[in-house]
DNA sequence: GTAGGGTTAG
């Protein structure tokens, strides 16, 4: 046994036969651990990992704390629970306490740091990687994919060149990274250079190409890889990705063609059936989703009825289809019929009732659901807002934060619109005596800011400060928004700094977006760009949108191009950035550039939405 | 117990 283990170790260090090795090693490891580890400890470890896999982290921790004997596997399992939840401080605490760390302990903590956004974490992860006493290929792959996921391809490539045995996993990570940055050519080139590709290589390439709107390239490569390949089993996932990609763009016919290319065979055929090229659940789900996207609920249902094996996602897709066309009866019928509804199923039903004006049922389901998440709250709050039940929305908004759920931009946009009837909101606010906490203050300030009543928002903020009510990061989003609307550059900067210095609130991406907005609106575009470059966050839609908005007002094509390209990369299907850029070029008489934008839009199959004009903006 | 890839909800 020991000799065999040694041989496998050597193979591993040379990176030969990754997958067989890993599966071999897993079974072997469990055999050896079972031999050496006392049975009680062995079973306790199993239980911890089971609890973590089923999301019962606190139970796992209780068991961990109660154990009087632990080995490194115990520590690592417990750590992995925190890593999964991105609770990095707790993971680190455990890591620092482990009596005997092994490579897995190091790999775990490093992967934790790299999976958090923000360069501070990346640097810490890298520091640990440099410090670790011994590395295996997982360590290298973790760091390379970590850099790639954070868009830092320079470092990723440098490590790729430096690693002792470059392998297919790190190549796949690089492909993903290139495509996150929109670098299609490099991704395709690297893909072609991989000596022995596996199914994940093709899948990484496919999903990236689809995200970048390069459906033609994706289709070509997919068919190239399929030719002369009789073990086509691995291709199904790639087909599924492209089918879904066509669906996103409403190209149902192309999707259906691909779907029909996969042999229609369902059910068991006894031996090694998994490796055969045939439709699986995901293929059916993806095709169904294409129909749902275009509102063709009949065709979707046809597929649903033909499926022999349905999973939760099949049910959810079908339910969301009925919700979309407001057939709540059928939606809830399926919900009742389905074997085990998950959080997503509940959320679909709740948002369905909420959107269709049945707040009572929406709230009923909401109260009954077992595991609420942020989207559950957002769905029901959005429902109250759309149905003009403002008090209800604000009440839920408060309740949500009392239960420790942190609002995001979806929540905020509902709650800001809630203050749509600003006079009503004001009355409600003044009448609230008992329940006026920081959250209601936030809602009110946000309401003023949203309606461009900047001085009212800032006044209220000052009053709040005088009353010694501690503002939160949400308060500052509204305050900064108010400054943006009122064109108060200096005030905005001052508030941004005061938030950090006086209140110790770390700026989030929303605050940066506001700051960029403030500067860009006043034409300080270089300063706005400097802010973007200085952020630890990867700029998102709001940030680039703010910059683009400023560019438009101040007719700055140079920065507009940068912002529009970034937006197109983030949301290739949205027509707004194309139209904006087109109009700017047209205004300046740069017709060649304008035409290029129009062609690009056509190539990406983006439909111009009503409400945007080619001529006037 | 650690690294890369496919479908669904606000």
In words, what does this structure look like?
The protein is mostly helical. Helix content is 72%, strand content 0%. The protein contains 36 helices and no strands. It has helices spanning 2-13, 18-36, 39-53, 57-66, 72-84, 88-97, 103-114, 119-131, 137-149, 153-162, 168-180, 184-193, 199-211, 215-226, 235-248, 252-261, 281-293, 297-306, 312-324, 328-337, 343-355, 359-368, 374-386, 390-402, 409-418, 422-431, 438-450, 454-466, 473-486, 489-501, 509-521, 525-534, 541-553, 557-570, 576-587, 591-603. It starts with a helix and ends in a 14-residue tail after the last helix. The relative contact order is 0.03. The model is unreliable at 1-34, 270-274 and 610-617 (pLDDT under 50).
What attributes does this structure have?
617 residues; mainly alpha; 36 helices; globular; PPR_At4g14850-like_plant; repeat; PPR_rpt; Pentatricopeptide repeat-containing protein, mitochondrial
Can you give me a brief rundown of this structure?
The protein has 617 residues and is mostly helical.
Gap from first CA to last CA: 74 Å
- Quickly give the structural class: mainly alpha
State the helicity in percent bands. over 70%
How many strands?
A: 0
User: Which percent band covers the strand fraction?
Assistant: under 5%
**Main pleated-sheet profile:** none
* Total count of helical runs of at least 4 residues: 36
Spans of at least 5 consecutive residues with low confidence: 1-34, 270-274, 610-617
Q: What overall geometry do the principal axes of the alpha carbons give?
A: globular
| Whole-number mean pLDDT | 85
> Could you tell me the radius of gyration in angstroms?
27 Å
Organism: Stylosanthes scabra
InterPro entries: E_motif, PPR_At4g14850-like_plant, PPR_rpt, TPR-like_helical_dom_sf
PPR repeats: 71-105, 136-170, 235-265, 280-314, 342-372, 373-407, 437-471, 472-507
Protein name: Pentatricopeptide repeat-containing protein, mitochondrial
């Amino acid at each position: 046994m020991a000799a065999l283990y040694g041989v496998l170790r050597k193979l591993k260090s040379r990176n030969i036969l990754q997958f067989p090795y890993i599966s071999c090693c897993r079974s072997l490891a469990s055999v050896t651990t079972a031999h050496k580890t006392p049975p009680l400890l062995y079973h306790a470890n199993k239980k911890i990992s089971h609890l973590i896999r089923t999301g019962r982290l606190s139970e796992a921790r209780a068991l961990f704390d109660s154990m009087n004997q632990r080995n490194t596997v115990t520590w690592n399992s417990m750590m992995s629970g925190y890593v999964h939840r991105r609770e990095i401080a707790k993971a680190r605490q455990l890591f620092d306490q482990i009596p005997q760390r092994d490579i897995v302990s190091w790999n775990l903590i490093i992967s934790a740091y790299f999976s958090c956004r923000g360069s501070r974490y990346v640097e810490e992860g890298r520091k640990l990687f440099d410090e670790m006493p011994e590395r295996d290929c997982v360590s290298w792959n973790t760091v390379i994919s970590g850099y790639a996921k954070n868009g830092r391809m320079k470092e990723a490539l440098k490590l790729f060149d430096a690693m002792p045995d470059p392998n297919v996993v790190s190549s796949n990570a690089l492909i993903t990274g290139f495509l996150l940055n929109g670098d299609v050519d490099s991704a395709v080139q690297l893909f072609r250079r991989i000596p022995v590709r596996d199914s994940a290589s093709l899948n990484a390439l496919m999903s990236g190409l689809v995200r970048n709107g390069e459906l033609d390239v994706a289709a070509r490569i997919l068919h190239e890889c399929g030719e002369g390949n009789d073990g086509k089993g691995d291709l199904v996932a790639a087909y599924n990705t492209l089918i879904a990609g066509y669906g996103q763009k409403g190209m149902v016919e192309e999707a259906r063609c691909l779907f029909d290319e996969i042999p229609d065979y369902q059910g068991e055929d006894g031996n090694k059936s998994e490796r055969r090229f045939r439709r699986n659940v995901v293929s059916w789900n993806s095709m169904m989703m294409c129909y749902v996207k275009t509102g063709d609920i009949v065709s979707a249902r046809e597929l649903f009825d033909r499926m022999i094996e349905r999973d939760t996602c099949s049910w959810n897709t079908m339910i969301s289809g009925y919700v979309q066309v407001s057939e709540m009866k059928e939606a809830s019928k399926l919900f009742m019929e389905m074997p085990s509804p998950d959080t997503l199923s509940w959320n679909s039903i709740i948002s369905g009732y909420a959107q269709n004006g049945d707040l009572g049922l929406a709230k009923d389901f909401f109260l009954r659901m077992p595991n609420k998440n942020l989207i559950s709250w957002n769905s029901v709050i959005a429902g109250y807002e759309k149905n003009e039940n403002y008090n209800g929305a604000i009440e839920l908004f408060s309740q949500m934060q009392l239960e420790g759920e942190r609002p995001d931009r979806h929540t905020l946009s509902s709650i800001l619109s809630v203050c749509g009837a600003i006079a009503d909101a004001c009355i409600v606010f003044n009448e609230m005596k008992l329940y006026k906490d920081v959250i209601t203050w936030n809602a009110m300030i946000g309401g003023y800011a949203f309606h461009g009543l900047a001085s009212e928002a800032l006044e209220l903020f000052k009053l709040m400060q005088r009353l010694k009510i501690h503002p939160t990061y949400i308060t500052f989003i509204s305050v900064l928004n108010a400054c943006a609307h009122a064109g108060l550059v200096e005030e905005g900067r001052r508030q941004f700094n005061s938030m950090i210095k006086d209140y110790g609130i770390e700026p989030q991406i929303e605050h940066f977006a506001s700051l960029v907005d403030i500067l860009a609106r006043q034409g300080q575009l270089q300063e706005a760009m400097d802010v973007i470059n200085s952020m630890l966050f990867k700029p998102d839609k709001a940030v680039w949108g703010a910059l683009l908005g400023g560019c438009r007002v101040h007719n700055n094509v140079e920065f507009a191009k940068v912002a529009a390209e970034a937006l197109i990369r983030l949301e290739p299907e949205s027509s707004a950035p194309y139209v904006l850029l087109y109009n700017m070029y047209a205004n300046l008489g740069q017709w060649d550039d304008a035409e290029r934008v129009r062609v690009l839009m056509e190539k990406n199959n983006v439909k111009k939405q009503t409400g945007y004009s080619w001529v006037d903006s």
